[in-house]
């Protein structure tokens, strides 16, 4: 079993749900590069401003981005700490599967018993 030291199942579900859509992954990538306004983000997608806001709301609920007000603009930036937590969780899964494969390799390497 994978130890979930930092994230509850609900938080993990929100993170991977947020990352399940290409548009949200692109918004996350863009906001990792630099903080951007929602308007600037929305300008690059073939969807309504409201649809982009909904994508950002999903990312924000997953704590992958942080939104703040600056005057009339709403600025969005990625939260590298949550991304690091998600990466650590995936690394735990990778370790689990590598250990299973190593055990399988060891079993297959054992000599066959002679009859």
3D structure, described in words:
InterPro entries: ArsR-like_HTH, HTH_ArsR_DNA-bd_dom, WH-like_DNA-bd_sf, WH_DNA-bd_sf. This is ArsR family transcriptional regulator. Residues 4-98 form the HTH arsR-type domain. GO terms for molecular function: DNA-binding transcription factor activity. The chain has 115 residues and is of the alpha+beta class. The protein has a domain at 9-79: Winged helix-like DNA-binding domain superfamily/Winged helix DNA-binding domain (Arc Repressor Mutant, subunit A), CATH 1.10.10.10. Helix content is 61%, strand content 12%. Strands 1-3-2 form a three-stranded antiparallel beta sheet. Helix 1 (9-18) packs antiparallel against helix 4 and helix 2 (22-33) packs across helix 4. The two termini are 37 Å apart.
Question: What's a quick, concise take on this entry?
Answer:
The protein has 115 residues and is α+β, with helices and mostly antiparallel strands.
- Kindly report the CATH topology of the domain at 9-79: Arc Repressor Mutant, subunit A
Number of helices: 5
Tally of extended strands? 3
Secondary structure class reads alpha+beta
CATH class of the domain at 9-79: Mainly Alpha
Shape: elongated
The helix content is 55-70%
Backbone CA Rg: 20 Å
Mean pLDDT: 90
Instruction: Based on the coordinates given, report the CATH architecture of the domain at 9-79.
Output: Orthogonal Bundle
Assembly type of the shown chains? Answer: single chain
Across the major sheet, the strand order is 1-3-2
The CATH homologous superfamily of the domain at 9-79 is named: Winged helix-like DNA-binding domain superfamily/Winged helix DNA-binding domain
The string of secondary-structure elements, in order, is HHEHHEEH
What is the first-to-last residue Cα distance?
Answer: 37 Å
Q: Low-confidence segments, ≥5 residues, pLDDT <50?
A: none
Q: How is the main sheet built?
A: 3 strands, antiparallel
**Residue share in β-strands:** 5-15%
């Amino acid at each position: 079993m994978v130890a979930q030291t930092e994230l509850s199942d609900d938080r993990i579900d929100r993170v991977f749900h947020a990352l399940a859509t290409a548009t949200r992954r692109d918004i996350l990538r863009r906001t990792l590069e630099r903080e951007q306004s929602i308007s600037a983000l929305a300008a690059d997608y073939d969807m309504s401003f409201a649809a982009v806001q909904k994508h950002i709301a999903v990312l924000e609920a997953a704590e992958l981005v942080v939104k703040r007000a600056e005057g009339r603009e709403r600025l969005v930036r990625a939260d590298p700490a949550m991304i690091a937590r998600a990466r650590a969780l995936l690394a735990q899964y990778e370790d689990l599967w590598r250990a299973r494969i190593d055990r399988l390799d060891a079993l297959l390497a054992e000599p066959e018993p002679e009859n």
